[in-house]
Design brief:
Elements: H1 3-34, E1 52-57, H2 64-74, E2 78-84, E3 93-96, H3 101-111, E4 118-120, E5 130-134
Parallel strand pairs: 1-2, 1-5, 3-4
Antiparallel strand pairs: 3-5
């Protein structure tokens, strides 16, 4: 290739590379607008506070509560208690404990639990916003998408 031919091709290569970079950033922007990240904060006026929750393993599978705890903590949620229930339930669910459905829906979305399985059972004595009950469908949830 002659020097003159290289000089003619070079601007097109630069334009192609810059165009690709712009398209990647534009795609990332659109993706973030369609699927915004879930922030682990309570949607109230005043100082921000992290959503606190408990996890109860009712799946009959050992270790799933600990894995779910790690998954939620990596995403900024504050898991304050783990427990194991003696009875097994079929479907995992999220329980709103203080009348804050938005926080319960955030937890459900992060875990991949359907919003139809978010229920309200107000219990101010628990001192948490949300309780998660892991059922036998636990392997279909987000923490287990290996």
């Amino acid at each position: 290739m002659r020097v003159e031919e290289k000089r003619k091709i070079w601007p097109w290569v630069v334009i192609g590379v810059l165009g690709t970079v712009v398209l990647v950033f534009l795609g990332s922007l659109v993706w973030r607008m369609v699927n915004p990240p879930i922030v682990p904060y309570v949607e109230l006026e005043g100082p921000r506070s992290v959503i606190q929750l408990t996890i109860s393993n009712s799946s009959g599978v050992t270790g799933v509560a600990r894995k779910t705890l790690n998954y939620l903590r990596e995403r900024g949620f504050d898991v304050v208690e783990l427990s194991t229930a003696p009875d097994t339930v079929k479907l995992s669910r999220v329980i709103d404990r203080v009348g804050d459905r938005i926080s319960a829906m955030k937890v459900a979305k992060v875990l991949g639990i359907s919003d139809t399985l978010v229920v309200s059972d107000i219990d101010s004595m628990l001192f948490v916003r949300v309780s998660v009950i892991l059922g036998s469908d636990v392997k279909t949830l987000s923490p287990f998408d290996d």
